[in-house]
C-alpha cells in the first residue's frame, strides 16, 4: 500500500515557485513527520553538499515521512542530529541501503553516483544526482526546475529513475538567459565563470583555509588535495586534485562542457515546443 501511495504523489516532484514559503530557522525541531511524504535518503550526508541538503530540507519545510543518511564505509556509524532527531549514518554499499526509499539525493561525486545510483533505481527510488556522472547521458533528464521541468514529466515516485542537474554555473546562467531566449532568441553569449574550491568538497575547503593561514605566516602551503597553491593565486588553467594515487581535474566543468549542457537543455526545450505545436 505504501508503494502504491508513493506513485500517486507527483506533486512532491514539482518545482517550488521562486520566493515561496519563508525559510525555517536551522534550529527548528520538526514536531511530526508527514505520513504522506516520501522516504528520503541523502548519499554523502557527511560532506559539504550533503549538509547543505539537510539545511535546505529544513529551510523549505520539505515533507518527508522518513530520512536515511548514507555515506561511505569510512563515515558509517557517525551520528548526526537533525531537526531534533539523532540519525546514524549508514553504509551506502550495504545490502538493502535503498530499500523503501522514494527519493535519493546523491552528493558524493561522479564515481559514487555511477557505482550506486543503479542500485537505488532498482529499489524504486528517484535519484537526484548532483554530480557530473549522468549530465550528458541522453537517457537521463537533465533538469533545471525553473527552466525545463517538463523534462521529468515521466518521472514517478516508486518507479525508479535518475534526474541529473547541471553544474552551478550553468544553472545560474540559464535561469537568466532562458526567458530572454524564449522571447528574443539569444544568438551569442560570452560567459566567464569562477569556480569555487568548495566544488572539490569539504577536504578542499579545509585545505584552502590551511593554505591561507600558512601563506599569512610565511610558510610553504600544504598541497595534499590541490596539486599547487590555490590561495592568492589565480591559475589560468585547470588545477588538479591529488586523490587516491591518481589525479582528477578540480575544474572539471570546462567552458566547452558548459556549452554542451546548455545546448542539450535548449535542444530539449526546442523539441518540446515543436511537439506542443503539432
Q: What would you give as the CATH superfamily of the largest domain? A: NAD(P)-binding Rossmann-like Domain
Order of helices and strands: HEHEEEEEHEEHHEEH
Identify the strand order in the major beta sheet.
Answer: 5-2-1-6-7-8
Number of separate structural domains: 3
CATH architecture heading of the largest domain:
3-Layer(aba) Sandwich
Helix content: 25-40%
Shape: globular
Determine the structural class based on helices, strands and strand pairing. Answer: alpha/beta
- CATH level 3 topology of the largest domain: Rossmann fold
How far is the N terminus from the C terminus? 39 Å
Pfam families: Semialdhyde_dh (PF01118), Semialdhyde_dhC (PF02774)
Domain Semialdehyde dehydrogenase NAD-binding: 39-155
Transmembrane segments: 250-270
GO molecular function, one term: NAD binding
Outline the fold blueprint.
Elements (H helix, E strand, L loop, with lengths): L1 H6 L31 E5 L4 H12 L6 E6 L7 E4 L2 E4 L1 E2 L11 E4 L3 H13 L3 E4 L31 E4 L3 H17 L17 H15 L23 E4 L2 E4 L5 H23 L1
Parallel strand pairs: 1-2, 1-6, 2-5, 6-7, 7-8
Antiparallel strand pairs: 3-4, 9-10
Description:
The chain is α/β, with parallel strands linked by helices. The chain folds into 3 domains: 2-165, Rossmann fold; 171-192 and 254-277, no CATH class; 197-249, no CATH class. The protein has helices at residues 2-7, 48-59, 110-122, 168-184, 202-216, 255-277; strands at residues 39-43, 66-71, 79-82, 85-88, 90-91, 103-106, 126-129, 161-164, 240-243, 246-249. A 6-stranded parallel β-sheet has the order 5-2-1-6-7-8, sandwiched between helices. A two-stranded antiparallel ribbon has the order 3-4. A two-stranded antiparallel sheet has the order 9-10. Strand 1 (39-43), helix 2 (48-59) and strand 2 (66-71) form a beta-alpha-beta unit. Helix 4 crosses helix 6. It is globular, with a radius of gyration of 20 Å.
